[in-house]
């Protein structure tokens, strides 16, 4: 299944993707930088910035946990949180997910789907995942 992420809500698209992965399908997400996060720009930036800057209270030099900055990696991490990743079933399902920034040439002629239940309603406030990534310092 090849899905164009442009104009889709992050959580809704991630939940549809995780269900498909658990059913044994391979899922490819294109245009990950154009996936939308609902809510204000300040709230979304603060949420992801807090995750990126997280360090251990007892040992501030401990640099974990690692949290991604690039939009395709943020999407993959969101889907991973919806899978039983610590079990072999979830880990093997997660290997079937591929996310890309833009549309690579190998998928230019492929049949690309949209997920109607994950479409972004323009009446809501939102920000693109690519914009959040740029604010976090990612280059893509």
TrEMBL record:
<keyword id="KW-0687">Ribonucleoprotein</keyword>
<dbReference type="GO" id="GO:0017148">
    <property type="term" value="P:negative regulation of translation"/>
</dbReference>
<dbReference type="Pfam" id="PF00572">
    <property type="entry name" value="Ribosomal_L13"/>
</dbReference>
<comment type="similarity">
    <text>Belongs to the universal ribosomal protein uL13 family.</text>
</comment>
<dbReference type="InterPro" id="IPR023563">
    <property type="entry name" value="Ribosomal_uL13_CS"/>
</dbReference>
<dbReference type="InterPro" id="IPR036899">
    <property type="entry name" value="Ribosomal_uL13_sf"/>
</dbReference>
<dbReference type="GO" id="GO:0003729">
    <property type="term" value="F:mRNA binding"/>
</dbReference>
<dbReference type="GO" id="GO:0006412">
    <property type="term" value="P:translation"/>
</dbReference>
<dbReference type="GO" id="GO:0022625">
    <property type="term" value="C:cytosolic large ribosomal subunit"/>
</dbReference>
<comment type="function">
    <text>This protein is one of the early assembly proteins of the 50S ribosomal subunit, although it is not seen to bind rRNA by itself. It is important during the early stages of 50S assembly.</text>
</comment>
<dbReference type="InterPro" id="IPR005823">
    <property type="entry name" value="Ribosomal_uL13_bac-type"/>
</dbReference>
<dbReference type="InterPro" id="IPR005822">
    <property type="entry name" value="Ribosomal_uL13"/>
</dbReference>
<protein>
    <recommendedName>
        <fullName>Large ribosomal subunit protein uL13</fullName>
    </recommendedName>
</protein>
<dbReference type="GO" id="GO:0003735">
    <property type="term" value="F:structural constituent of ribosome"/>
</dbReference>
<keyword id="KW-0689">Ribosomal protein</keyword>
<comment type="subunit">
    <text>Part of the 50S ribosomal subunit.</text>
</comment>
<dbReference type="InterPro" id="IPR005755">
    <property type="entry name" value="Ribosomal_uL13_euk/arc"/>
</dbReference>
């Amino acid at each position: 299944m090849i899905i164009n992420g442009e104009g889709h809500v992050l959580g809704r698209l991630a939940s549809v993707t995780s269900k498909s992965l658990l059913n044994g399908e391979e899922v490819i997400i294109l245009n990950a930088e154009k996936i939308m996060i609902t809510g204000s720009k300040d709230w979304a930036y603060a949420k992801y910035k807090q995750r990126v800057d997280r360090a251990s209270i007892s040992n501030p030099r401990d640099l974990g946990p690692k949290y991604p900055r690039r939009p395709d990696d943020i999407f993959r991490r969101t889907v991973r949180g919806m899978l039983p990743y610590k079990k072999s079933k979830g880990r093997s399902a997660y290997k079937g997910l591929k996310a890309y920034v833009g549309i690579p040439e190998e998928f230019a002629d492929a049949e690309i789907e949209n997920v109607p239940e994950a479409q972004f309603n323009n009446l809501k406030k939102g920000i693109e995942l690519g914009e959040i990534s740029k604010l976090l310092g990612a280059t893509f």
